[in-house]
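Summary of Year 1 activities. Much of the first year was spent building the evaluation harness for sequence design. The harness presents a backbone, in tokenized form, and records the residue chosen at every position. We chose the following record to illustrate the format because it has been used consistently in internal testing since the harness was completed.
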């Protein structure tokens, strides 16, 4: 089931999320719904707080080539356990901040640890777009948006655009 994505500014997007206490069938359904919502948007990542669920759950799929197979990844309670000194700059966007992009500097490589939907501990080294995306989604779990990395004026400008968009959406 496709879920509604919250648009910034929404106080739920600024909250630190609680750890998922246990892997349940409800959590598996939520993860499936999140993947469906992410693909439909279309996007490459989605965190539970973006659909109003304040739990530490993210989904991502950074396989963007037309001929590549989807590679959905569901992460329960993900955390970055190591990151490189080397950085990358990506023009980031966010499904909760539609049609707004800005360059954000992040570690180029990260090692991430999480539980899969069977409750098994997983660990993976990520680089390139995968590294940027997983850091962006984990930030959501900490109540942080990509615009929080920007200078105040640019951040305020984007926030005003989102407030206007929300007013227009409410009238429609």
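For this record, the design step produced the sequence shown next.
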């Amino acid at each position: 089931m496709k879920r509604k994505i919250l648009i910034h500014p929404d106080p739920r997007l600024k909250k630190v999320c609680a750890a998922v206490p246990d892997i349940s069938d409800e959590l598996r359904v939520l993860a499936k719904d999140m993947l469906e919502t992410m693909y439909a948007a279309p996007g490459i990542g989605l965190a539970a707080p973006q659909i109003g669920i304040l739990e530490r759950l993210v989904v991502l799929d950074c396989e963007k080539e037309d001929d590549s197979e989807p590679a959905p990844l569901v992460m329960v309670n993900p955390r970055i356990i190591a990151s490189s000194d080397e950085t990358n700059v990506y023009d980031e966007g966010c499904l909760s901040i539609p049609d707004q992009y800005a360059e954000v500097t992040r570690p180029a490589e990260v090692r991430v640890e999480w539980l899969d939907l069977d409750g098994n501990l997983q660990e993976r080294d990520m680089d390139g777009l995968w590294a940027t995306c997983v850091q962006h989604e984990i930030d959501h779990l900490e109540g942080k948006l990509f615009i929080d990395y920007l200078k105040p004026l640019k951040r305020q400008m984007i926030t005003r655009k989102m407030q206007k968009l929300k007013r227009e959406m409410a009238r429609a």
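Residues 109 and 127 are 4 Å apart (CA to CA). Quantitative recovery figures across the full test set are reported in Table 2.
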